[in-house]
Amino acid sequence: RQDGGREIGPFEKSIVFEELSFGYPGRDTLFKNVNLEFERGKVTAVVGASGSGKSSIINLILGMFDPTDGCITVDGVPLKQINQESWLRKIGFVSQEPFTFHSTVSENIRFGRDGFSIESVIEAAKIANAHGFISELPQQYETEVGERGMKLSGGQQQRIAIARAVLEGPEILIFDEATSSLDSVSEKLVQEAIDSVSVERTVIIIAHRLSTVRNADKIIVLENGRMVEEGTHEELLSRQGQYAVLAGSSPLASDVSRDL
Length: 260
Prior knowledge:
The protein is about 30% helix and about 20% strand. The chain is of the alpha/beta class and about 260 residues long. Helix 4 (about 120-125) packs across helix 6 (about 155-165). The longest helix is centred in the last third of the chain and has 14 residues, at about 185-195. The chain has helices at about 55-60, 85-90, 105-110, 120-125, 130-135, 155-165, 185-195, 210-215, 235-240, 240-245, and strands spanning about 15-20, 30-40, 45-50, 70-75, 75-80, 90-95, 170-175, 200-205, 220-225, 225-230. The strands form 2 sheets. It has a 6-stranded mixed beta sheet, with helices on both faces.
């Protein structure tokens, strides 16, 4: 994609997909005339079956690809006109697989960024529900985590990844399937971290598990590249539509705890 030259100011209103169509090069069209809105200060979750286009939403928001047709705007400004580096500075990103390198806990949270004091690192860890377990490590924040974080559990690595994402105080946080590979105990702790960092932030959650999305301000349901439903958890369950089927709460599926 071509990078725009416009520096962006504070994020004030929303990210909007306007009549957006998109397909990866050499593949079929994934989205056709999709309209979505991610509002400032709200938690918006995107759910859907595998292949429905959830992760592609994130790729488009990050500016990794341009829409085939239609546009994405940030506070009314087309994303393609915005300098990508200035846009990405506003975003903290947490993926399904946390990256942990062979160094100390504090260096993993700083992630090569200079100028952050240990006090800033500790504050980020507290927000991410990580300070408790870090304080119990042999050298606390100066504990070596081992190759690929082998000395830490998956849930601990994910909370360090969340601390890393919030360290710079991003205006927007994106979680892409952040709890999908965790056991139930680790998932609960990571979900508490997500709830903590979501307060007074703009948050976008690509979700696999019901527990990750039920407290969202708005849930968007995708099916085959189309938005088929939109609302809160309670509203969508009451409609007995696609979300209720995914959540396992409609007459078609009885297991309420089923993954989305």
